[in-house]
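User: Please predict the structure of the protein below. I'd like the answer in structure-token form so I can feed it into my own downstream comparison script.

Assistant: Understood. Taking the following sequence of 204 residues as input:
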Amino acid sequence: MLYELTKLALKLYTVPKALSALESYTTTGTAHGRLLGCWETEHGVIVGRLLLLREFDDAGALADERQRVLTSSDPFGIGEHLESFEVESYAQFPFLPPIRPGRFGDVYEFRTYRLKVGGLVPTMAGWEAAVPERTKLFPLTTAMYGLDGAPRITHIWPFPSLDERLAIRRTSYERGIWPPVNGPENIAHATSTIAFPVGFSPLS
């Protein structure tokens, strides 16, 4: 499976209207790929942004959708509410299980690490060793490496609440479970975004 993370920047105060149109678009069969999640961002980026995570069977299906998006005057069915968008292609770390929709938390954190040159292989090795213990504290939605643009990984974590997020992360540090070996050493730049799943998101 391959994945696409799409960042939709909307005009101010248009998110409710855009969500209604986007729900219709992603649930009527018009959209390409399988919708795994849709979130509204709250911290870490400008306001008025939605995140879409979609799954594709293979590179051909992903490429076809990228071509459609780039050549469409209304690629996500939300018309004038859309100001701009970014699309990123990913493959999941090979040792992780498939992404399964379901209810996991009210808060999701999206962390993207731009990696140093040659940093992907040691980063994944560290993650493979550390993830089993870390996910005993709370599950991981996915960790993926970019197939386009700068070398990077993006990992998505659900949490019951913002307070629980802090508690879980603190526990993982104190117990030496996290961060993974070779993780911080290979990060060139890091960003974090807090987002909340919308009503029709399969991941919530």
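That's the full token string. Helices lie at 15-27, 59-71, 120-137, 162-174.
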